[in-house]
Design goal:
Elements lengths: L6 E8 L5 H11 L17 H6 L6 E8 L5 E8 L7 H9 L3 E7 L6 H12 L3 E7 L8 H12 L7 E2 L8 H11 L12 E10 L3 E10 L1 E3 L3 E4 L4 E4 L2 E5 L3 E4 L1 E3 L3 E5 L13 E3 L19 E7 L5 H14 L4 E7 L3 E8 L2 H15 L3 E3 L6 E5 L4 E4 L11 E16 L3 H10 L3 E8 L3 E9 H5 L2 H8 L5 E11 L2 E8 L2 E2 L5 E4 H18 L7 E7 L2 E8 L15 H21 L6 H6 L16
Length: 610
C-alpha cells in the first residue's frame, strides 16, 4: 500500500506546442517507465488523429515510480493535457484530480494566451504551480524574458522556475526533484469511507464501460461492491488497473491514487463524468464537488450519407459521448439530408475531431452542416426561444429582439501586427476592451466579439494577419442584442435549410453572393439548368445558375433541310423542361463545406491551431 505522503498527483498545462507531451516522454524515460525500444515521440498521444495533427486531444494518465534523493520511492501520477482552447474541458477534468501542476512556458515564445488561461484555471482550483521554462536549447530562446513574463503576467516567482530542454533531456531530473519537494501530497483520509471521483470513462467492446477514477478517501479493492451516486446503481468491482504507462492490474487503489475500474457496467449512460463512487451502505457520504459540466457553444448537424447508417450513427455517438462528455447530440430531421443529429461542441476544432473520429473509429460516412451558435429570440408575444438551428428561425415579423452570445477574446501578438489584428477585430464587429504592452516586443489585446464571428474562419484570418505568430484564448461573456437575419439558400426554388445560416444584416448581401458563387462551382452540371439563390425574408439577394449539359442532337444531320435540325433542338428543349420539373438536384458534400468558407480560406477552427 502506498502512503499518501509519498504520492504526487500533477498535470502538465501549457499553451499549444510548448512541449507538454515531449516533457511527459522525458519524465517516463527518466523514471524507467519505458524501455529504450518502446520510446517514440509523444508516447501518450495514442490516437492516430493526435499524431497526424500533432496535438493532444484526450488527456492521458501514467503512474511513475521515482526514487528521490532521500532514498524514498514516490508514486507520481502524471496527467498529460491538451493545449487547444476547444479541449479546455479535458484540462478542467485533469485539474480536478490533482494537487499540483507543471506550468510549461516556451523560452522562445514566452507566456501565451492559453498559458494565462490554464494558469488561472489551476489557481482557481487551489493547485500549486511549478513553472517550467522549456526549449532552452533553441537559438532564439530568451530565458530571462520568459522569467520576466512569469512575474509580470502571471505573478509567479521566476526564481522558482526550472529551466529545461524536453527535447534533449537537459534539466528534466530537476523537474522530478522539484515535483517531490514543492508539490503537496494528496489531502484525502486513508481510513475514511470510500469516495472516488470519476474523471473519465470509455467503452470497451469486451469489458463494458471502463472508468478512470481518483480515490479521494478510503480505498477500493477487487470484489468490493460500489455505488455510483448520480444513478444510485450498484456494481461489483471486477478489475482494477493502473497505467505505468502499460495497463497493469492491481488488487486495490487507496486514497490519493489514480486508476481504472471495471465493474460490468453495460450502459454508457450509467457513468457520468464528475460523479462520486462510494460504498453501497454509505448513507452519510458527502458527494464530491466534481467539476462544472461543459456547455456546448457551437452546433452543427451530422447526417449519414447512407440512410441505413442512422442507427449505427446513434450507437457510435452514444459510445463517443461516454468518452467525451463535452459532446452532446439530439435527433434532427432535414428535408435535404434525411435523419441525423443536431450536435453540440466546444468549438470548431472539436467539431472536426468528433466528425473524423466517428468516420474513422466506426466506419461511417457523414455530412456536416454549417456550424452555428445558440441565439435567444424574444417574440412579439413575449416568449423567449433559444435556437441553434437556422431551420428553427421564426418569421421575421414575429421577432421583437435577437440576442447573440459574445466572447472575450484575448490575443497575444508581436507588436508589429497590432494594426492588422485591430482591423480584423473591428471588421468582425468587435468592441475593444484592453490593449497592453508587456516586455519590449509583446502585446496583449482583448476584444468583445460575437461568438458567431469567432467560429467563422476567425482563426485562419488571424493567423494570416500575423504570419502565424498570434495565440488566442476566449471565454463566453453573456449575450447582447444583434440585428440578425436568416440567409436562406434555394436550389431550383426549393429551400435547403441544411445550407442556411444566420448572419448579421449588414453582411447578408456579401455573404449571400459568396455562398451562391461557391455553390455554383461545386454543384455538378445536370441535364437542366440549376438555379442557386440566396434570400433574406423572402427577398432574393443573389443568384447563380449552373448551366445544363448540352448533347449535340444534330451531330448526325449532314446538311439538308434546316427544319430537321430545328425540330431536333425543340424536342431536346421540351425534354429538358420536363426534366427540370421532375428532376432532383444532387448536392455533394463540397457544397455544404463551401458554406463554411470565405475569401478563399478554409474554415479554420482547428487546422490553424491558434
Amino acid at each position: 500500500m502506498s502512503l499518501p505522503q509519498r504520492i504526487r498527483n500533477f498535470c502538465i498545462i501549457a499553451h499549444i506546442d510548448h512541449g507538454k507531451s515531449t516533457l511527459a516522454d522525458r519524465l517516463m524515460e527518466c523514471t524507467g517507465a519505458l524501455a529504450p525500444r518502446e520510446r517514440v515521440d509523444q508516447y501518450l498521444d495514442r490516437m492516430d488523429l493526435e499524431r497526424e495533427r500533432g496535438i493532444t486531444i484526450k488527456a492521458q494518465t501514467v503512474r511513475l515510480a521515482y526514487r528521490a534523493e532521500d532514498g524514498e520511492t514516490y508514486q507520481l501520477n502524471l496527467i498529460d493535457t491538451p493545449g487547444h482552447v476547444d479541449f479546455h474541458y479535458e484540462v478542467s477534468r485533469s485539474l480536478a484530480a490533482c494537487e499540483g501542476a507543471l506550468l510549461v512556458v516556451d523560452a522562445s515564445q514566452g507566456v501565451q494566451a492559453q498559458t494565462l488561461a490554464n494558469a488561472l484555471a489551476a489557481t482557481a482550483q487551489g493547485l500549486d504551480l511549478l513553472p517550467v521554462i522549456n526549449k532552452i536549447d533553441l537559438p532564439n530562446a530568451d530565458v530571462e524574458g520568459a522569467k520576466r513574463e512569469l512575474r509580470e503576467v502571471l505573478g509567479l516567482d521566476p526564481e522558482q522556475a526550472v529551466c529545461i530542454s524536453a527535447k534533449t533531456g537537459e534539466g528534466v531530473p530537476g523537474v522530478l526533484s522539484a515535483i517531490v519537494r514543492r508539490l503537496p501530497p494528496p489531502r484525502g483520509v486513508a481510513d475514511a469511507p470510500l469516495r472516488a471521483l470519476v474523471i473519465d470513462s470509455w467503452y470497451d467492446s469486451y469489458q463494458g464501460v471502463v472508468v478512470l477514477l481518483r480515490v479521494v478517501d478510503g480505498e477500493v479493492h477487487v470484489g468490493q461492491h460500489v455505488r455510483l451516486m448520480a444513478t444510485s446503481k450498484e456494481y461489483e468491482v471486477l478489475k482494477l488497473g493502473v497505467f505505468d504507462p502499460h495497463p497493469a492490474d492491481v488488487t486495490e487503489l487507496v486514497a490519493g491514487e489514480v486508476g481504472s475500474l471495471i465493474a460490468g457496467i453495460r450502459e454508457v449512460r450509467d457513468t457520468q463524468i464528475g460523479d462520486t463512487i462510494c460504498a453501497p451502505d454509505a448513507a452519510d457520504v458527502v458527494q464530491l464537488p466534481g467539476f462544472r459540466p461543459s456547455k456546448p457553444i457551437v452546433f452543427a448537424g451530422l447526417f449519414p450519407t447512407e440512410p441505413g447508417q442512422y442507427e449505427e450513427l446513434r450507437a457510435a455517438m452514444e459510445k463517443l459521448a461516454l468518452n467525451d462528455a463535452s459532446f452532446t447530440y439530439e435527433p434532427e430531421t432535414s428535408a435535404a439530408l434525411g435523419f441525423g443529429f443536431r450536435c453540440g461542441f466546444l468549438g470548431s476544432l472539436h467539431l472536426e475531431i468528433i466528425q473524423e473520429r466517428l468516420e474513422r473509429e466506426f466506419g461511417l460516412h457523414l455530412i456536416s452542416t454549417a456550424p452555428t451558435v445558440a441565439y435567444s429570440i424574444l417574440t412579439r408575444q413575449g416568449e423567449v426561444h433559444t435556437i441553434a438551428n437556422p431551420a428553427e428561425f421564426p418569421d421575421p415579423g414575429d421577432i421583437d429582439e435577437i440576442n447573440e452570445p459574445y466572447a472575450l477574446v484575448t490575443v497575444h501578438i508581436p507588436k508589429e501586427f497590432v494594426g492588422n489584428v485591430l482591423a480584423l477585430c473591428e471588421e468582425r464587429r468587435g468592441i475593444q476592451q484592453h490593449l497592453e504592452y508587456f516586455g519590449t516586443e509583446r502585446v496583449r489585446i482583448q476584444y468583445l466579439l460575437p461568438f458567431a464571428e469567432l467560429i467563422f474562419d476567425f482563426h485562419d484570418q488571424l493567423k494570416s494577419a500575423t504570419r502565424g505568430y498570434a495565440s488566442l484564448d476566449y471565454e463566453l461573456r453573456g449575450e447582447q442584442p444583434g440585428d440578425l437575419v436568416k440567409l436562406q439558400l434555394y436550389i431550383n426554388g426549393e429551400p435547403v435549410d441544411a445550407l442556411s445560416v444566420i448572419v448579421h444584416r449588414d453582411q447578408a448581401y456579401y455573404r449571400g453572393r459568396e455562398v451562391v458563387a461557391r455553390l455554383r462551382s461545386v454543384i455538378p452540371r445536370q441535364l437542366f439548368d440549376v438555379a442557386i439563390q440566396a434570400g433574406v425574408g423572402g427577398r432574393i439577394i443573389a443568384r447563380e445558375t449552373v448551366k445544363a449539359l448540352r448533347k449535340d442532337v444534330t451531330a448526325k444531320c449532314y446538311g439538308g433541310d434546316i427544319t430537321r435540325k430545328r425540330k431536333l433542338l425543340e424536342k431536346q428543349k421540351a425534354g429538358k423542361k420536363r426534366m427540370k420539373r421532375l428532376g432532383k438536384v444532387e448536392i455533394p458534400q463540397e457544397a455544404f463545406l463551401s458554406v463554411l468558407t470565405t475569401k478563399g480560406t478554409s474554415q479554420g477552427g482547428g487546422k490553424g491551431r491558434a
